[in-house]
Specification:
globular; mainly alpha; single chain; 225 residues; 0% strand; Urease accessory protein UreF
Length: 225
C-alpha cells in the first residue's frame, strides 16, 4: 500500500474524524442499565459478539460491496445498498445514528480532496448512511478492499471501547484490553463480510433492537444510542 493510502485510512479510522461516533454506544449503555454488562469481561464479550453478529454480517458486508460500486460509478448499486442499510436499522435511534454520521462524513468529503465532485453529488442525492459515505471515502484512497474494511472495523472498535469505559464504567487499562480483544477478532469478521453476497448478508440482532427501543426512553443516559 502506498504511504498516502495508508495515511488516508488512518485518518478515516481516527476517533478525531468529525462524524460524532463518540456520542453513540450502540445499545451498550442500555445493556449496562439492564445489568447485562457490568464487568470488563462482560463488556469485552458483548462487543466481540456484536462485531461478529451485527457489524460483520451487515455494515462491513455492505462496505465490501459499496467500495467497488463507487469505483465503477455504479449509481444504481450504490442506491440499492444505501436503501438496504436504511431498511435494516431496527430502531429509530439506530437509523438516526447512521444518517447523522453519514451526513457528517458527507460534509467532511466536501472539504476533502479525494472524492470526485460527481461522486459527492450522487451521495448527497441519497439519505446517505454512514457505511455508504465511508465506502466513498475509502474507495478514493486506492487502498486494498480488505484494508478498508479493517479500518472501518477498528474505528468502530475504538469508539465502542471508549463507550464501555464511560458506561460500565471501566479504567483505561481495561479499555485497552477490550480493544486488544476486538482487534484480534476483527480480521475474521472482515473475512466473513467479504464472503457474503446479497442473499447471505443480514441484519438480525433482536437483543440490540430491543435494547435500542428501551434506550430511547431510558431515564438517564450519556449516549444518543
Amino acid at each position: 500500500m502506498q504511504d498516502s493510502s495508508l495515511m488516508q485510512l488512518m485518518w478515516l479510522a481516527s476517533p478525531a474524524l468529525p462524524v460524532g461516533g463518540f456520542s453513540y454506544s450502540e445499545c451498550l449503555e442500555a445493556a449496562v442499565n439492564k445489568a447485562l454488562v457490568a464487568t470488563e469481561k462482560e463488556a469485552s464479550d458483548w462487543l466481540v459478539e456484536q462485531l461478529h453478529s451485527s457489524l460483520g454480517r451487515a455494515d462491513l458486508a455492505v462496505i465490501a460491496q459499496a467500495i467497488p460500486a463507487w469505483q465503477t460509478s455504479n449509481g444504481e448499486r450504490i442506491a440499492q445498498l444505501n436503501a438496504w442499510m436504511l431498511q435494516t436499522r431496527e430502531s429509530s435511534e439506530l437509523r438516526a445514528q447512521t444518517l447523522q454520521m453519514g451526513r457528517s462524513l458527507l460534509e467532511w468529503l466536501r472539504n476533502h480532496t479525494t472524492a470526485q465532485a460527481e461522486q459527492i453529488a450522487l451521495l448527497a442525492k441519497l439519505q446517505p448512511t454512514y457505511p455508504l459515505a465511508f465506502a466513498l471515502a475509502a474507495s478514493s484512497t486506492g487502498a486494498p478492499l480488505r484494508d478498508c474494511l479493517l479500518t472501518y472495523a477498528f474505528g468502530w472498535a475504538e469508539n465502542m471501547m471508549q463507550a464501555a469505559i464511560k458506561a460500565v464504567p471501566l479504567g483505561q487499562s481495561a479499555g485497552q484490553r477490550i480493544l486488544s480483544a476486538l482487534a484480534a477478532a476483527i480480521p475474521a469478521a472482515v473475512d466473513h463480510a467479504l464472503s457474503l453476497n446479497d442473499g447471505s448478508r443480514q441484519a438480525f440482532s433482536p437483543m440490540l433492537a430491543i435494547l435500542s427501543a428501551q434506550h430511547e426512553n431510558q431515564y438517564s443516559r450519556l449516549f444518543r444510542s
